Amino acid sequence: MDTVVQWNINSFRSNFEELKQLLNRSQSAVVALQARGLHSASSTEWVPVGEAALLIRNGTHFSEIVLNTGLHAAAATISPKKKL
What we know:
Layout: E1 4-8, H1 16-25, E2 30-40, E3 46-56, E4 61-64, E5 76-79
Parallel strand pairs: 1-2
Antiparallel strand pairs: 2-3, 4-5
């Protein structure tokens, strides 16, 4: 199915089992994940951290977009069977 699921997963590691269940249940062409939070650099300093991922189903035509940014981002051009 040509749909996109977006999830602010907060932590890939702590939500890994839920992610596996989502992927098993979903027939989405793309699952876009964002994990964002704060990391303790010291007892008084917190540093923002993040990750991003695009999970693209086998058989879905896509082209990676290379980003030149300090942002935590992933990008691709998706060519679904029907217009999204």
